[in-house]
Amino acid sequence: MVVLLLVSHNPTFAGWTTDDVPIPMEAALFPQKLAERWSQAVHLPDKSQLVGHFLQAGFRGALTSDLHSDIPRCNPIFFEERTMKPFATGLWLFSALPDIEEEDYRSTFGMLHFLLMLPGSTYPPRIPQFGLTLADLDSLISMIHCLFSLATGSWHQVKQGVANPYDGSLLAQHLAHISDIMRTRNFHTTMKTRPFECSVMVLSYIARLFEIFFRWISGAPGLHLASDVDSTNIPMVDGTIYGPRGVEGDILSELEAWRAEASLHLTSHQAIGFMKACTDDLPAFLFHKPTASARTLPVIPGAGAPDPTPRGRLKGSPLVSTTPLAPTGASPPVYTAAVSPLFTWAIGCEPALMKKPAGEALLRIRKEDPTNAVPAFKDIAAPDPAKATKQVCFAYCLAGTRGCDGTMPGRRRGAAAPLPRAQPCNRAHIDLSLAAWTRSATPESYAHICAWLKLPVVQKYFAPSAAFAASPLYTG
Ligand SMILES: [Zn+2]
Questions:
Q1: 362 C-alpha to center of ligand 1: Å?
Q2: Tell me: the pLDDT tens digits for 131-144?
Q3: What is the pTM of this model?
Q4: Whose CA is closest to 250, among 239, 238, 258, 242?
């Protein structure tokens, strides 16, 4: 399994299969050769004691060498049999965070077990209540690098100054991408405002990276031998994957999509609302004692708006106990908005109207043309045709508004009297930065929206965003 997990890609490889078929660039994937000590200790069944011992010794060596002087010591809990046994026996299961089940902790080795490497972690592995610090995230990635570079590295090579082949693997390159993102100024700003959401999103992207590899490996990619002008019998592997979005593709394009989404969502202050929505959906058992106050600390009254909460109140004290506005126990509304919205206000639209929620403009359109129907998105792949069309959520999809609070409009939150439960917003939250709304959709999905945008009465108020107008999904 590690052989495939540490696959590398060489786009300049020019070679042929044994049947003399030229190998396309995207299929030039090469499994890594494992170091002998690793394959002996790790890849023999029922040697979990040996694995723990080997990794501990290996880690110690790696962590005390000059190459890794900035990495903290790995937590001894990581080497315990309950962690190492599923690892040693190959019982790995990497899933995206929302898909992890509580039982997975015990029976398989997964993404969260890496958290046990961090100093101070306890078993079972859980995400700390307030998330991870930047330093924790850095050490986590360094230690994952360190663990897998043991698999391919030999001490001979290190002595001779030969680079570890692990560094050229797709896994290493994509983990390094996350590290690069974490060094950007935008990431630091986002991390300062929302450390919990931001660090959980980093974990989530690491988990999704492993999930992509895991899906690819569990699809049993074929190993074959190839030749190039210099040599024969070069082991290669094919790249077909049944990806997380349920579409068959090749592993490189899945990784490319992952990379693009990670860059977009981890470096944008506007994506905070999006992160909040994602972290709120995660199962509670992933966290150490999650409590309502821990999960809803500071409130951002509008996606992208600066946080007006005084600095001194950000830490420690849950907002519900300090603000007289929020009724006790009610969670303050959190607004989410598309990172890449579908609509903008039309040029020439009244500035006063643009400050109001989009519903106001929709009402005016309705007054001028009573037959006008709010535009709807059509989900071509929906199994139930009755549920295939969904009205667009303007709060979410219109640029420059505060976003959707997750409930249907018409009910006001924050009033003194207890309110009947607000209806959850079931409209389409289209975000053109997400492949789910672009790659998995067709112009037909957007046909009604495009036709609506061309109505003269609509053009007075709304226009397609630049991103939408430039996309092949926008049709005349
Ligand atoms: Zn909505």
A1: 15
A2: 999 999 999 998 99
A3: 0.62
A4: 239
